[in-house]
Amino acid sequence: MAEAEVRPASRVTERDVRRAMWRHILTLQWSWNYERMQALGWLWSMLPILQKVHPDPESLKEAMRRNIAFYNTNPQIGSPLIFGAAVAMEEQGQGEVGDSLKVALMGPLAGIGDTIQAILLRPILAVVAASLAMAGSVAGPVIMILFGLAMIAVMPPQFWLGYRQGVGLVHQMAAGGAIERLTEAATVLGLTVIGGFIPSIMAGLKTPVKFVRSVTVGGQVTEKTIELQAVLDQILPYMIPVLVTAFAYWLLRGLRLSPAKTLLVLAVVAFVLSALHIL
Amino acid sequence: MEGYSIWVAVILAVWAYIAIVTMLGPGLWWHEPLISGLVTGLVVGDVGLGLQVGASLTLMSLGMHTYGGATIPDFMTGAILGTAFGALGGAGPEAGLAIAIPAALLMTQLDILGRAVTTVFIHGADAYLERGDLRGITRMHLWGHLPWGLSRAIPVFLAIWLGSGPVQAFMKWLPQWFMNGMKVTGAVLPALGFALLLAQLPVRRYWPFMVLGFVLFAYLKVPITGIALLAVALAALYGSLKGGEQHG
Q1: ipTM of the complex in this document
Q2: Where are the transmembrane segments (chain B) (predicted)?
Q3: Which of B192, B206, B212, B232 to mutate against chain A (most A CBs within 10 Å)?
Q4: What is the chain A residue with the closest CA to B204?
Q5: Closest-CA residue of chain A to B108
Q6: What is the CA radius of gyration of chain B?
Q7: Residue B26: is the preceding peptide bond cis (ω within 30°)?
């Protein structure tokens, strides 16, 4: 097999690869946290591979440090694919390439995966299942249970696809730009979808502020109400969701706050604005 | 019936624990309110009520998803408590929902608390990593689900064990400004998920695509599915056009 040639000194067995895959599928988010999100689950899943590739403790530590960096994407649609490719690259001592692939793909695939799951599949299924349940049929929740199982069934094939492509990608790298092109396409896709997501997901953010003025028109006093939201909509629809997202982005990138601190600031701002009846 | 035996409280608390941890991996979707409504209905002996409460909460949760780690109302816990209290003395689905909805909103607090506590485990893992202690890293990861599971199991146990009186009294005791603040916070938090995603992407170079997606939704009212399809076409076109430049 051609693959055998590109696996030089590594003692990684198929059993190690399977173990990594199942760790990833079964426990990825168990240690999810605001700071680095799925990072620890990613590292723990990768450990069976890293231990074999890096027998030397110092080089193992170095590899582990790389693998505990921030990671977050859709765990069911997307993550097994990314992880499969990264496993293949770690196995061939190309971990750094795997890292950049991971960073480049996690955002777009989170967008794609979340779209497929939460915008396409789940709402359609939920409406069907809920209406069946409303009519008293147990078929409603049963459909949901089957849906959950179907989501797991799509995970191993993604992993193996990523794993095989990951091996291929390392070869194509010298030939030129495969990863860059893939990353570029994924970025275009991800950002376009996010652009639509920001207003649609946060459409509920509106201001109830009204200005009531007594105006005298032709000798008659009438009350005139100006709704701030209508004015904002004329300037830019969904202005509040856009501003809030920009504010959160500025806290993260501009002020370099951690996700946990950003969350705290957003919550405080939300409480203050709600107490002032601005939101 | 005035209340439940302690065993009903224990069983439902264990279910809440399992349901939230399977959501973290492998994602069985047992945290769906419809499934938790059915399970609770089976435990308390009123499946029909469980289906009704679960279905109502499912319809309320349409379009809600934990993007990038945002917190949404916990309809799973809401379904458990709503079904359990709705079945008490034949109180019915309306009474169940009257408990379920505020409980789901209130649980966002505990969700945030649970998620915040898990930071301990990543810092622990960092320390074990530097010592080269792989078992330590494994422990940190596998124990990570404790705050998640307990943040659901403890309130479910207490609420069902104590009964509906104290729960309703507690809900009434909560001031209105707090509930409003929670609601606005819930609406604002998806922004954190988007910002986290954007921070990972080369926004400076590719921002026009984001503007395009925004215009499609905000001005042209294209549904998200349509935007996603167009985005696939754009990505393919962009790739082939760039490829053409290089070869030409």
Answers
A1: 0.74
A2: 7-29, 150-171, 177-199, 211-238
A3: B192
A4: A191
A5: A267
A6: 22
A7: yes
